[in-house]
Amino acid sequence: MKLSNLKYNLPEELIAEYPAEKRDQSKLMVLDRKTESIEKKIFADIVDYFKKGDCLVINETRVFPARLMATKDKTDAQVEIFLLRELEHGLWEVLVKPARKVRVGNRLTITKDVYCDVIDNTVSGGRVVRFFYEGNFFDIVEKIGKSPLPPYIKRESEDLDKDRYQTVYAKTRGAVAAPTAGLHFTPKILEKIKKKGVKIVPVLLHLGLGSFRQVMVEDLSRHKMDSEYFDITDKSVNEINNTIKSGGRVIAVGTSSVRVLESVVTTEGFVKPLKGWTDKFIYPPYDFKIVDLLITNFHLPCSTLIMLASAFAGRDFIFRAYQEAIDEKWRFFSYGDAMLII
Q1: Which of 20, 112, 137, 320 is spaced 20 to 30 Å from 189 by Cα?
Q2: Residue 157 covered by a domain
Q3: Is the pLDDT score of 211 beyond 80?
Q4: Whether residue 193 is found in the same domain as residue 286
């Protein structure tokens, strides 16, 4: 599969700048891989597609407000700091904007009590900074940071984003991008799914900016994903493996959940408990070992996300579905409509 096979033209007005008024009222496109048929629903109807004995795998990562505004020493120039990942206590890999103004040795002041020193450059154009502060860093960031909206959302973040750019089951802080397939779920829908005899099983993957990073190679086998931290516990592993043994289906919410599951496959076709870093890259053709159904959104052309969806449903089927969505003016990307692939 070549990168150029994954291009499509999307009218800019179909990029969702805001979420739907209610989480579960987004549209839902259901793709049946056996019949290659397409149904149009709303997300609340997804409950009808679950069966007793299934398990629903969710990514319980929590987005933190990773955008900080700072002032550069001596010049008082305004600089945006985007937190990417903590390398060790107080030491972070970040992006800075405008990057040309920020050099090793600069001090960036966020508040009178919080500042950082730039100590290195990274190969990807970022910086390594050491923060100085008192208290819990994440608690401080929750108060002073802004929601890290994706680059294709052109507006400034607003108060509503602190709630809506977060799943209702978000638990463990560490992501700078939301696992957006999960944004459509409500507590009520999750309760209905449970009542059907479906296990809801958490895994963890802290999404970085790799989701939005442009793939620069035509030959997909040469692309390398950014590493992201993940964790799948003994309890979750047991529930997933019991589902597989009993003939139930494993339903993954989002590409991040898929990447966790496909990173921990055993030779017997089950999953194992593990935590660490994964750079699992899934693109066509790929033989999925664990996942039976996939819930996802409508993704950017040539993104690693549309590659995974194309590997799961077939490139031609995905692109036919996308064209129907464009013709009918569905909403695309993080705050857009949803897809269920069965």
Answers
A1: 320
A2: no
A3: no
A4: yes
Are residues 223 and 134 part of one domain? no
Peptide bond before residue 285 is cis, with ω within 30 degrees of 0: yes
Contact between 148 and 82 under an 8 Å Cβ cutoff? The reply is yes
Q: How many CB atoms lie within 10 A of CB 70?
A: 22
- Structural contact between residues 169 and 191, judged by C-beta atoms closer than 8 angstroms: no
Q: Judge if 34 and 131 occupy the same domain.
A: no
- Write the DSSP assignment of 319-336 as a string of letters: HHHHHHHHHTT--BSTTS
Tokens at 172, concatenated: 């463990």
Encode pLDDT of 227-236 as tens digits: 899 999 999 9
* Domain CATH number, residue 126: 2.40.10.240
Alpha helices in 145-253, H assignment, sequence order: 159-164, 187-195, 234-245
Mean pLDDT of the chain: 95
Beta bridge partners of 2: 219
Q: How many helices (H) and strands (E) does the chain have?
A: 7, 17
Q: Which helix (H) or strand (E) holds 311?
A: helix 304-313
CA distance linking residue 152 with residue 204, whole number of Å: 25
In sequence order, the 6+-apart residues with CB closer than 8 A to the CB of 280 are 225, 259, 262, 263
**C-alpha pair distances (Å), 139 with each of 4, 135, 207:** 43, 8, 19
Which of 198, 200, 276, 190 shows the shortest CA–CA distance to 236?
A: 200
Contact present, 223 and 215 (Cβ < 8 Å): yes
Cα 83 to Cα 107, 141, 239, distances in angstroms: 16, 10, 34
Q: What is the pLDDT of residue 124?
A: 80
Domain that holds residue 83: 67-144
Same domain for 272 and 126, yes or no, is: no
Whether residues 249 and 334 fall in one domain: yes
- CATH value at residue 277: 3.40.1780.10
* Number of domains comprising the chain: 2
Interatomic CA distance for residues 72 and 87, integer angstroms? 23
Beta bridge partners of 232: 274
Side chain identity, residue 240: I
